[in-house]
Design goal:
Elements: H1 2-7, H2 20-52, H3 56-66, H4 71-78, H5 82-96, H6 101-110
């Protein structure tokens, strides 16, 4: 029974009789987990809003960047010049408010933004 309720999302399982302190601790733990979840949801929502503000082409470039493609490879795949890819890439970084490529990739992972997959 304990395993079943824990899988269903219970924070704690108290057996009777329990001490007031055990109950207070369980409630405090639940509040802490809820605050953390809300904070994460807020961050992900902000990242998703940034992603949705990008153009389709910028999102396409973004997917290729997160897949690890170089500017030269992205340019060849999209039939663009490298300079155009660099401009799109800069706009993506600015639009996502990312200070580095590592921060940018972490944002994409947090928002579960799909990376580009090479056509077969």
């Amino acid at each position: 029974m304990v395993r079943k309720v824990m899988k269903a999302g219970a924070i704690e399982f108290l057996t009777k009789p329990f001490q007031k302190q055990e109950l207070l601790h369980a409630v405090e733990q639940a509040f802490h987990q809820d605050r953390a979840r809300r904070r994460e949801d807020s961050i992900v929502s902000a990242i998703e809003a940034r992603i949705s503000s990008l153009t389709d082409r910028e999102r396409e470039v973004m997917a290729m960047v997160t897949a690890g493609l170089l500017n030269k490879q992205i340019a060849a795949e999209l039939n663009l010049s490298e300079i155009t890819v660099k401009i799109h890439r800069r706009r993506v970084m600015d639009g996502m408010q990312a200070r580095s490529l590592a921060e940018f990739v972490k944002m994409c992972e947090r928002a579960k933004f799909p990376s580009w997959i090479a056509p077969a």
